[in-house]
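Session log. Operator J.P. requested a structure for one protein chain; no other inputs attached. Running the standard single-chain path with token output.
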Amino acid sequence: MELNNTALLSHQKVNSSIPDSKITQFQKGDFVFQAGAPGKNIYLLNKGRIKLYRLAPAGKKVTQWFCFPGEVFGLAELPSKKERTIYAQCCESCEVSEIPLNKFKELLSSSPDIALQVIEQLSMRLKIVGDTLLNFTADDSRSRIIKLLVRLNTRFGVTRNNMRLIDVALTHKELADMIGSCRQTVTTVLGDLKREGKIELINHRISFRSPAALEALIDQPD
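Structure written below.
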């Protein structure tokens, strides 16, 4: 299951349905919330990209996922109403709708289509977590990176000049955080794929001939 356009929420529809929602502009590096903050609201990303991560005991950041426009976040602590355990940090300029829990529940009750979209988003995240755990034990770094590119193509891929382009700018560090690797490994693998003529790299965007051609590289020897 991949996140598709039908699972993305329209912020215009949500904001018009909840007059009490608060819309806030954030700059790159700002936190929407941090671990330890009260978990009283949910959030809808209208514009930009947000990284959701935890801090390991040694202080290392462990990225759980990246949130893109049309996705909700901040749901994990709501059932128990405990403090936040994760950080939500803006990777670029962002616009976020903050919605009180009671108003969000009313919206889900009155709008089955929105409730279904939220369920699809949460199901997608659970699948990504499961796939990531499996890939840690079954795949090498090259295969994990290629599988990530295939997944990103499903969500952000467009066809241009007879090539598939992942039309979202991601740094090597961000790609590494998505698969539990390090920036240098991602840089090395992407460099190898480029030298082999399998991908092209332009302005932090990756293009390739076709998803099938990319998938065919998985588990091939370096």
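Operator note: The chain has a mean pLDDT of 83.
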